[in-house]
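Students often ask what a 'structure token' actually looks like in practice. Rather than answer in the abstract, let us consider Heme-binding protein 1, a protein of 189 residues. Its sequence is given first.
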Amino acid sequence: MLGLVKNSLLSTVEAWPYRLLSKGEKDQVTYEERAYEGGRFAAVELVGKPFDEASKEGVLKLLKYVGGSNDKGVGMGMTAPVSMTAFPAEDGSYQQKVKVSLWIPSEFQDNPPCPIDESIKIEERQGMTIYSTQFGGYAKEAEYVSHAARLKAALGSDAAYHKDFYLCNGYDPPVKLYGRRNEVWFVKE
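Now compare that with the structural description of the same chain:
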């Protein structure tokens, strides 16, 4: 547990590498188009729980993993963002299925430690291009749904992206009170 606390509060945070492709603004919504590198991710899928509960549980599992709950007992350091894949229902609310994932720090990309928690899987993912909008505060399902709707309206019908899922991203530890960063990402097709 000490490794978890130390890792989430005291370590530096490595950002998932990307290139900024463009910026836009429409109807008071600022958004960016970015290209993210592929790589290895630690991921856990939770089913049958509301989004906020499932995402919290998934984040805690991944923090334990990067904090040293792995076969090498090594604290890897934190990366950002923590991504929660949301699967919207017809009405815009979320289905009770969430995939929480974290880019594995660059030092461990080639040979990531194996998680002790068997629900955590190490996945190899291709690079992707996304549309992103940013907002502050402590984000929960309602804020992500609202900002996703705003991003969808700003992009209009010309933008081609996956409609069956999107990513809800948090960049800050829970103890950070001010200047928090959250983002909604639509993955381009």
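One point worth highlighting: The domain at 18-187 is CATH 3.20.80.10 (Multidrug-efflux Transporter 1 Regulator Bmrr; Chain A). Ask yourself how you might have guessed this from the sequence alone, and why that guess would often be unreliable.
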